[in-house]
Specification:
The chain is mainly α and about 90 residues long. The chain contains five helices and no strands. The longest helix has 9 residues. The chain is globular and about 35 Å long. The chain starts with 18 loop residues before the first helix and ends with a helix. Pfam families: Ank_2. InterPro entries: Ankyrin_rpt (IPR002110), Ankyrin_rpt-contain_sf (IPR036770). Keywords: ANK repeat, Repeat.
């Protein structure tokens, strides 16, 4: 796996998204857990100010949301449009 060969879990693409934000959006609980264990930060924001929790909440990924919250993700972090993960879940 890439992480075992030195890949950085906090690498961001052009929009500032990390592997954790993509895994959270897709509801990939096992991948989210692995990335967090390898040092991925649950509060890393993309260029829109969205965190992995925002993406998980938008997709109703209950298991991933719970995991991110347990690892310190903040449900009240606002993105650039003023929305929070909690508002995406509603």
């Amino acid at each position: 796996m890439l992480l075992e060969n030195g890949a950085e879990p906090e690498t961001q693409d052009a929009s500032g998204r990390t592997p954790l934000s993509y895994a959270a959006e897709e509801g990939c609980e096992a991948v989210v857990k692995l990335l967090l264990e390898k040092g991925a930060e649950p509060e890393t924001e993309d260029t829109s100010g969205r965190t992995p929790l925002s993406y998980a909440a938008r997709q109703c990924g209950e298991a991933v949301v719970k995991l991110l919250l347990e690892k310190g993700a903040e449900p009240e972090t606002q993105d650039t449009s003023g929305r929070t993960p909690l508002s995406y879940a509603a």
